Amino acid sequence: MADSKAVRGDRTNARPAQKRTSPATFYRQVVAELRKVVYPTRDQLTTYFIVVMVFVIVMMAIVSALDLGFGKLAFAIFDGSGKK
């Protein structure tokens, strides 16, 4: 294993210990980050809602149709009524 490219040396102090953030500093940083957030307008929110609902309804229709089709196919194959 002489050709190994593994890191050698003491790994106990790989990173210096960082001081913990106080709750007040954390709160100020959270508020500062939330001020950077760009919230959608009412028109954008309405458009996004409609797009999501249409997508969900279309996907429900596709999954329902596939479920119905595969269910009928399974009953046709495994009916057991003896029809030939």
Give the topology, please.
Elements: H1 23-36, H2 42-77
List key phrases describing it.
84 residues; mainly alpha
Condensed summary:
The chain crosses the membrane at residues 45-66. The protein is mainly alpha-helical.
Structure notes:
The chain has 84 residues and is mainly alpha-helical. It has a domain at 40-78. The protein has two helices and no strands. The protein has helices at 23-36, 42-77. The N and C termini lie far apart (70 Å). The mean pLDDT is 86. Residues 1-21 are annotated as: Disordered.
- Give the amount of beta strand, in percent: under 5%
The stretches of 5 or more residues where confidence is low (pLDDT under 50) are none
Count the strands?
0
Q: How far is the N terminus from the C terminus?
A: 70 Å
- Rounded to an integer in angstroms, the radius of gyration calculated over CA atoms is 30 Å
The whole-number mean of residue pLDDT values reads 86
Overall geometry comes to: flat
Order of helices and strands: HH
